[in-house]
Prior knowledge:
It is a single chain. The protein is of the alpha+beta class. The chain folds into two domains: 5-81 and 199-222, Glutaredoxin, CATH 3.40.30; 87-191, Up-down Bundle (Glutathione S-transferase Yfyf (Class Pi), Chain A, domain 2). 55% of the residues lie in helices and 12% in strands. The strands form two sheets. Strands 2-1-3-4 form a four-stranded mixed sheet. Strands 5-6-7 form a three-stranded antiparallel sheet, with no helix packed on it. Helix 1 (17-26) packs across helix 11 (193-201). The chain is globular, with a radius of gyration of 17 Å. The N and C termini lie far apart (37 Å). The structure holds glutathione (GSH). The site of glutathione (GSH) has 11 residues, from helix 4.
Amino acid sequence: MKHKLELIYFKMRALAEAPRLLFHYTKIKYDDVMSWDYYGKEWSEVKPNIPFKQLPMLVVDKKHKICQSMAIMTFIENLAGIDITDPILNAKANAIMQSSQELFMPLNPTVNFATGEKFIKKRDDMMSFLISRFEDLEKAIKENDQKFFIYDEPRACDFVTFHHLDLSKMLEPSIIKKFPRLEKFLEDIMSIDSVRSYLENRPELIDVSVEPKLVIDGVPHLTGVKKT
Ligand SMILES: N[C@@H](CCC(=O)N[C@@H](CS)C(=O)NCC(=O)O)C(=O)O
């Protein structure tokens, strides 16, 4: 059954990114909509009525509101019929997905919003955590001996991991270079045609650490939850 799918989010390269990547990989059509365009109101007015008061949220058939980016990822996997049915592999995939998702804070807000001295302090403070988690991820993919974290084809956990590793390059490009197997993983994801086409055309995130902006349809917009 075909559903109408609307992914509601803000101007940031953060938690809507893995759902977007998975939508493009599975070739499921969806609409990307900014919160203020969907509701016609400022975020502060909308927030109290969102099921878990944060975005992204996927609206299905104008009726069902699915919050929590990991729930959205699982839903897309199920919709595409690529869910992992083996209980052990499914649990391992969830462990990868959650471990990568824990990189969200403070990596994503720092890259999308922090500037100047604050950016440098946040970057330096999180470095040991990032390195430790990247070590764990590199070990997991090496032990698995497949192209991606579970199979030779990517699943939700791979796109969540991809997003955070990819974003780390904008925090400090040298970190990922310490992990050749993770770099190869990024290349393998980027070499999938539908994913590469999405990555080449998505809004560019510019002026990180100075005054971060997303370039949407050729126009730079300050990152954030406000219409500009
Ligand atoms: N656990 C949630 C976290 C969602 C989240 O932190 N959303 C942020 C943007 S990335 C947000 O809605 N910020 C605005 C606010 O909290 O008012 C998920 O994975 O979706």
